Prior knowledge:
By secondary structure, the chain is mainly beta. 10% of the residues lie in helices and 53% in strands. It is built from one helix and seven strands.
Amino acid sequence: MADETFKNPNRRAFARTVMRQPATLRYGDTSVPVQTLDVSQGGMCLMAGRPIGPGTRGTVALTVPLSDGPAPVSASLKVVYSSYLSAGQFKIGTVFTELGDDAAGVLARYAAPPP
Length: 115
């Protein structure tokens, strides 16, 4: 057993990049202001003022700061976890369910190391 390679089932498929931007999460008839914490090609982590249940599907909209100017991004996502941090602060983990080529390009440019 000592020779077996440990495989972490929670290992992320993509590297995350810190991004602190205001955003809006919409699901059903609800619109919630959120703050982004980090982003990857596979999803993003958000901070919200209330819990959002795992399995909830919605759309996030934000403006990504790029060196040549801000770029709007919208993506469909699904909540995979919602963790209580403190009063009025919940960490919301998401995966993208639909990320268009333009949005994926903007996020890739944001995450790319500076030249």
